[in-house]
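Hi support team,

I'm opening this ticket because the web form for multi-chain structure prediction keeps timing out on my end. I have pasted the exact lines I submitted so you can reproduce it. The total is 257 residues across two entries, so I didn't expect it to be a heavy job. Is there a limit I'm missing, or should I split the entries? Thanks in advance, R.K.
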Amino acid sequence: MIHTGIRAYVFNCSYASSSWVDDPSTLISDLQTALSTISSFSYLQLKVANVKNTIKKVEIEIVSITYKTKTRLNASEIDDLINDLNTALLTISDLSFLNIDICTDVFTDTPSSGWPSESWKRE
Amino acid sequence: MFLLIRLLLVGQVKVGRENRMLVDDTQIYVTGVLYQQSAYPSDVTQLLYLIDDALAQISELKYSEVLINRSECRFSNSTTREQLLVFLKDVSFNDIKFLSDSQSTSLRVALISQLNQLSDLEYDSVEIRTTRTV
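Hello R.K., no limit was hit. The queue was backed up. Here is the completed structure from your submission:
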């Protein structure tokens, strides 16, 4: 059994000309309003992340997207989704962003044969 | 793995007139780690304890777990490289889970200060991600 999930990342955002959002409540509300205008689109979670590395940046993540009743999209549908997200997000006047990435997670009930990856944690 | 572990959530708070559930979370990533000049150290547990003990010196810092992830990454030019990542989960700083700009700077400075004292450790970057989810 294969399960899929779509995530959208909006990178290098600034909101109200700031690359750090101390209180994301207004941005979250603006995003909810903007995303509600996209037809055949739903999601489970909306995240606003402030990222501090050598530079500061704001990222938006939209998790568990369903688009046109699908949770796995072909290339053309991904282009459509990016266009719809782009159009919706541009209605938020205080928001600017550089690009939108779409990721599709694929989960299987059987062990993956992907690249080796190991993790350790302190017990 | 890197993206999957980013999906972990903690620290639920209820706010707002609609009783929406907002989730605050902070995570720390130390990327490009080399221990004793190796991204494939023979004793990962030793590295785990070393980092955990070093970060315990930052009294304002709390986290639920420190994890090390080792993966083999393939790049677009078909080269592969071992990458070692240290991940701190469910982080709070001064008991705050959603950090301000200045708080995250203070935390990052403290982390770098501690990590730089570990002579056998090298790394590329320290990244703090403080997230609010609805």
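A quick check on our side: Strands of chain B lie at 12-15, 20-31, 34-35, 61-62, 65-74, 80-89, 92-93, 121-122, 125-133. Let us know if the file doesn't open in your viewer.
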